[in-house]
């Protein structure tokens, strides 16, 4: 208990309280155009109503339209995705000559036009959501089916007619596309470094697939970030990110580890340690799911996150502080 109290105190001193201040610096920005495939590290990314532009806009589905992820198909980690560099500029619009390029071991590169019209398919689903999506066509389906060895298609989220809302218990009124549940995932280099000091074999940050990586804060300080401003944009931390088996998968080889880093995280980042009042004691946590307040606004001008942006005014309200202390069963 003393260790937990000391840990909380160090985090509160680093970035908590009601007064805002410098917390960290953005060192990496990641976008994952195809759900569960390899991400793209970019110098900047514009924010839309559903998260970073292009993020999880596409998804690989099976013959029944169900989304496929690395949880059941680790080979998704081997698929590289490229977009035109200018695709991450503010207000950029694709022309008929602009493509998303997909590469995978043993396969010829595949070009998918960004501005072409596609047929609509129905009964596409991911987790609790189901609806319509745009099908990228038979040539793309053949490429993916050949790579995986079974019937597979690629679909694109239908923004014109579909809405996928975040869990209202944590973030009411926000939207996402094919992400697991929330538009953004924020992690810190300090948290990764702290984990790697314990692991026998260090792992890179791509195991945790964040959107925003920051540096300069205490390890796991992001756990307590209720509100943080990045480039004058207001992000709200809404839920610790419960981790599945994906962090055990080597993102360069697609080969899973039998236990790590999950086994190590269970010793100090499990529900039993962090959230003892919750039911799932074995769940491990790494990173903070977040939403961006400005994504609710119709005016998209200036909504850009760049490497080098300061993460400022990390605020932890008194109410939130007491809630966390109660989770640890420490009087507030």
UniProtKB/TrEMBL annotation:
MOSC domain location: 152-314
Organism listed in the record: Urochloa decumbens
GO BP of this protein: monocarboxylic acid metabolic process
SUPFAM superfamilies: MOSC N-terminal domain-like, PK beta-barrel domain-like
Pfam families: MOSC, MOSC_N
Cleaved signal peptide residues: none
Protein name as it appears in the record: MOSC domain-containing protein
InterPro entries: MoCF_Sase_C (IPR005302), MOCOS_middle (IPR005303), Pyrv_Knase-like_insert_dom_sf (IPR011037)
């Amino acid at each position: 208990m003393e260790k937990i109290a000391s840990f909380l105190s160090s985090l509160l001193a680093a970035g908590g309280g009601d007064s805002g201040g410098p917390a960290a610096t953005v060192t990496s920005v990641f976008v994952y155009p195809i759900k569960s495939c390899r991400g793209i590290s970019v110098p900047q990314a514009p924010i839309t109503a559903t998260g970073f532009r292009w993020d999880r806009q596409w998804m690989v589905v099976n013959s029944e339209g169900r989304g496929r992820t690395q949880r059941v198909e680790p080979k998704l980690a081997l698929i590289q995705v490229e977009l035109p560099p200018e695709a991450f500029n503010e207000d950029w619009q694709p022309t008929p000559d602009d493509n998303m390029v997909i590469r995978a071991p043993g396969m010829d590169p595949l070009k998918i036009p960004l501005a072409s019209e596609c047929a609509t398919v129905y009964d596409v689903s991911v987790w609790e959501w189901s609806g319509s999506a745009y099908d990228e066509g038979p040539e793309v389906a053949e490429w993916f089916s050949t790579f995986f060895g079974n019937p597979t298609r690629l679909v694109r989220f239908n923004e014109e007619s579909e809405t996928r809302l975040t869990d209202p218990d944590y973030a009411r009124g926000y939207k996402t596309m094919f992400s697991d549940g929330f538009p953004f995932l924020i992690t810190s280099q300090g948290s990764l470094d702290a984990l790697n000091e314990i692991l026998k074999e260090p792992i890179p940050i791509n195991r945790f697939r964040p959107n925003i990586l920051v540096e300069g804060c205490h390890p796991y300080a992001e756990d307590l970030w209720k509100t943080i401003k990045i480039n004058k944009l207001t992000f709200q931390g809404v839920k610790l990110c419960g981790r599945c088996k994906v962090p055990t998968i080597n993102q360069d080889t697609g080969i899973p580890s039998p236990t790590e880093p999950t086994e190590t995280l269970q010793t100090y980042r499990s529900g039993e340690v962090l959230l003892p009042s919750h039911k799932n004691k074995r769940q491990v946590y790494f990173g903070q799911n977040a939403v961006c307040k400005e994504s609710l606004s119709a005016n998209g001008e200036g909504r850009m996150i760049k490497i080098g942006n300061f993460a400022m005014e990390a605020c932890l309200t008194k109410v939130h502080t007491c809630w966390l202390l109660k989770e640890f069963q420490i009087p507030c």
